[in-house]
Specification:
This protein has one domain: Response regulator (Rossmann fold, 3-Layer(aba) Sandwich), CATH 3.40.50. By secondary structure, the chain is an alpha/beta fold. It is globular. The longest helix is centred in the last third of the chain and has 18 residues. Helix 1 packs across helix 5 and helix 2 runs parallel beside helix 3. Helices cover about 40% and strands about 15% of the residues. The mean pLDDT is about 85.
Length: about 150
């Protein structure tokens, strides 16, 4: 078993990806980070399809999931993950710019473990991502895989 747990980031905005990586690396979080750019790619990663069919077995410790992504949106990805008996225990944190109440409610109804609105201020964003990374990838002990 790997000692470092993977963090799966599902984000289509390159600027937000860079900010997230900067925040995680700036806090010396050394976990392997996998970047996906749309909902289809997230599902391909989780189901070992396409470019991920030969990846090393194992689920990520946490998925940082944007809502507004191309191909398949984050809420649909979350719905599929949480309805799959082999993936449903992966913690999924919605990390989004959406402050819409309906997105918040739907996210939690679909099984999100947390809903974090991306702060517009750089230092607040870095602080929020560092806190997420520390808790979900270092402190939290994920459930065993099925």
């Amino acid at each position: 078993m790997d000692t470092l747990k993977k963090i799966l980031i599902a984000e289509d905005d390159e600027k937000d990806i860079e900010l997230t990586l900067t925040a995680l690396k700036g806090f010396n979080i050394a976990n392997e980070i996998v970047i996906t750019h749309d909902g289809q790619e997230v599902l391909d990663y989780l189901y070992y399809r396409g470019e991920y069919e030969n990846r090393k077995r194992g689920n990520p410790a946490v998925i940082l999931l944007d809502i507004k992504m191309p191909k398949i949106n984050g809420l649909e990805v979350l719905k599929q993950i949480k309805s799959d008996e082999y993936l449903c225990r992966i913690p999924a944190v919605i990390l989004t710019s959406s402050k819409e109440e309906r997105d918040l409610i739907e996210g939690y109804n679909l099984g999100a473990n947390a809903y974090v609105v991306k702060p517009m201020d750089f230092s607040e964003f870095v602080s929020a991502v560092r806190g997420l990374g520390m808790f979900w990838a270092v402190i939290n002990e994920p459930p065993p895989e099925n």
